[in-house]
C-alpha cells in the first residue's frame, strides 16, 4: 500500500527520497507548514501521523487541562482543542504515576507538566512532580527547603515550570519565596541538569506580589508574570537577570485597580506586543470590544471573558466566555471570532493549554 501511495507523487526528485530523509526534512518545518504537507499524498500523511515519528516532528496545541470540583474534590480533565467528538488525548487521573495519580496541575510548558500532590497524600512531602503525559514519564523533585520543617501546614508557594526543548533537554522549576509582608523575597530554582535547588534574592521591586493564579509565560529563556502593580516582571533560569517593565496599561485605564485581574476581564481587549526589553517597547497591535468577543454566544453574555492562551502557531487569542463556558478564539489577522466548543455549564476555574512533546526529556525519571 505504501508503494501505491508513493506512486501518486509526481515523478520528481522528492519521489526518490527515503522515508527517513523525508521525516528529517519535515522535522525542520514549522507546524503550520507541516500540516500542509499532510496533503501532499497519503504516504506523507501517514509518515507525519506515525507514532514512531512524533518525537522528531513539531507539535501544536492539542488541548487544555481544566479543573473543577466533584463532590468537594478537585479533579482535572483534558479537553481536545476543536475535537470534542474524539476521546481525550490525555487521560486523567494520571494512572501512569502510581501514588501520584490525583496530582494538581500547577503549570505546563512545552509538553511537560508541573504537578503538586494533594495535601492528604502520603507523597505530599515531595511537593512537586514533573511529568510528560505523552510519554508517560515522570520525576519526583526533592524538597527545596523553603518551607522549613513544617511542610504540611504551609500554603503552597507560587511555582512555575520553564522548559524549551529547542535550547536544552533540561527543565527548571521556579518556587517563589515570600517575606513577612507577602511580597517576593527571592526564588528557589530547580535544575534537572544538576538535580538541585539554588536560591537567589529578588531584584524586583520590594512590593512585587505574586499569586498562585498570576498569569505567566516562559519564553526567550525568561519566566514572565503580570502583577497587580501593573508591571510585567521576568527572571531567567539562573536567577541572574531580573526585569521590571511597566505594563502598557496602568491604574488610570482600569475602573477598579484593586480588583484588577490580567486574565479575567469584563472590558475591551487591548493586544500589546513587547518588542524591546531595554526600553518601554510596547506596541499596540489591536483593540477588540467585549461585544465582538462575545456576540456569537447564544444567549449573548457580554459580562466577562477568561483569557487562556495565545495559540503557539497562529495569531489566535483563545478565551472562555458565557454561561456554558464556551471556548472561543479571536483571529488577530482576520479580525474574526470563532466558536470552538462548549466546555459545559460546570464552569472553568483554571484552564492550562497543552502542547504534547514526544521527546525523551525526562531521562532521569520513571
Q: How is the CATH topology of the largest domain named?
A: Neuraminidase
**Mind telling me the CATH class of the largest domain?**
Mainly Beta
**Major β-sheet, in short?**
5 strands, antiparallel
Question: What percentage of the residues does DSSP assign to strands (E)?
Answer: 25-35%
Give the total of beta strands: 22
Radius of gyration, in angstroms, nearest whole number: 22 Å
Main-sheet strand order equals 15-18-19-20-21
Shape verdict: globular
CATH architecture name of the largest domain: 6 Propeller
CA-CA gap between termini: 38 Å
| Assembly level | single chain
Protein name: F-box protein
Pfam family, one: F-box
Domain F-box: 17-57
Account of the 3D structure:
9% of the residues lie in helices and 35% in strands. The chain is mainly beta and 366 residues long. It has two domains: 2-53, no CATH class; 63-354, Neuraminidase. The strands form six sheets. Strands 15-18-19-20-21 form a five-stranded antiparallel beta sheet. β5 and β6 form a beta hairpin. The radius of gyration is 22 Å and the shape is globular. Residues 1-9 have low confidence and may be disordered.
List keywords for this structure.
22 strands, 5-stranded antiparallel β-sheet, F-box protein, 2 domains, about 375 residues, mainly beta, disordered N terminus, Neuraminidase, 4-stranded antiparallel β-sheet, single chain, F-box-like_dom_sf, about 10% helix
Topology:
Blueprint: H1 2-7, H2 19-26, H3 31-37, H4 42-49, E1 63-70, E2 73-80, E3 104-109, E4 112-116, E5 129-132, E6 137-140, E7 159-163, E8 171-178, E9 184-191, E10 196-201, E11 216-219, E12 222-226, E13 231-236, E14 242-246, E15 264-265, E16 269-274, E17 282-288, H5 290-294, E18 305-310, E19 316-321, E20 326-331, E21 336-342, E22 350-354
Antiparallel strand pairs: 1-2, 1-22, 3-4, 4-5, 5-6, 7-8, 8-9, 9-10, 11-12, 12-13, 13-14, 15-18, 16-17, 18-19, 19-20, 20-21
